[in-house]
């Protein structure tokens, strides 16, 4: 817990310099950001396998997952200042299991992730288009989608096939977390 507390200190300090999290969420940072990220872990069938966190931004959920599980976490972020912040966090916390890539998702070398997550990154159609090359039939997608979960699922139904269910968020009664596997493009 000490390393999570240290991460939150670093996050709050950096949030004054760049828009990592909304200032209005600072008083509820544990519930709004840590719990919101940590709730994804028990939804993963293999939480100690390699996670891919797309659009990592402030390190949510990637840093929280790396701290709690000790699992390898590859974070992808295209904005240099955010990557510099995340690298500083990784170095400060001694997170040898976390890796940050400064790159658009399209340019990241393909590897098979055990679990793919993305918080506030892209709508499902774009997310699947960009990231499905990192998945196998066994890869699990654990995607916090807020209040738009069902609408986003409807938007991909004609072009993507998957086995999925929607879990309620423990931090927002109106939000949902899409848990999917076997994500593949439908044959036309």
UniProtKB/TrEMBL annotation:
The keyword Transferase applies. S-adenosyl-L-methionine binds at residues 55, 60, 108-109, 119. Keywords: Cytoplasm, Membrane, Methyltransferase, rRNA processing, S-adenosyl-L-methionine, Transferase, Transmembrane, Transmembrane helix. Gene3D superfamilies: Vaccinia Virus protein VP39. Belongs to the methyltransferase superfamily. RNA methyltransferase RsmG family. Its EC number is 2.1.1.170. The chain crosses the membrane at residues 58-76. It comes from the Bacteria. PANTHER family: S-ADENOSYL-L-METHIONINE-DEPENDENT METHYLTRANSFERASES SUPERFAMILY PROTEIN. GO terms for molecular function: rRNA (guanine-N7-)-methyltransferase activity. It is found in: Cytoplasm. It catalyses: guanosine(527) in 16S rRNA + S-adenosyl-L-methionine = N(7)-methylguanosine(527) in 16S rRNA + S-adenosyl-L-homocysteine. HAMAP family: 16SrRNA_methyltr_G (MF_00074). It comes from Sphingomonas sanxanigenens DSM 19645 = NX02. It is an enzyme of class 2 (transferase). Its main location: cytoplasm. This is Ribosomal RNA small subunit methyltransferase G. Signal peptide: none annotated. Specifically methylates the N7 position of guanine in position 527 of 16S rRNA. One of its GO terms (cellular component) is cytosol.
């Amino acid at each position: 817990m000490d390393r999570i507390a240290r991460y939150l200190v670093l996050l709050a300090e950096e949030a004054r310099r760049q828009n990592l999290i909304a200032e209005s969420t600072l008083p509820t940072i544990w519930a709004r950001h840590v719990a919101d990220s940590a709730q994804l872990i028990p939804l993963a069938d293999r939480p100690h396998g390699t996670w891919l966190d797309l659009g990592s931004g402030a390190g949510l959920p990637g840093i929280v997952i790396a701290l709690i599980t000790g699992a390898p976490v590859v974070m992808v972020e295209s904005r240099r200042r955010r990557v510099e912040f995340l690298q500083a966090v990784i170095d400060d916390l001694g997170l040898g299991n976390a890796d940050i890539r400064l790159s658009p998702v399209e340019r990241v070398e393909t590897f098979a992730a055990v679990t793919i997550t993305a918080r506030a990154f892209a709508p499902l159609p774009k997310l699947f288009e960009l990231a499905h090359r990192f998945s196998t039939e066994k890869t699990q997608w654990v995607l916090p989608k807020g209040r738009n979960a069902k609408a986003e699922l409807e938007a991909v139904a004609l072009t993507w096939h998957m086995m999925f269910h929607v879990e309620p968020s423990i931090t927002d009664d109106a939000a949902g977390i899409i848990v999917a596997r076997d994500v593949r493009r439908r044959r036309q």
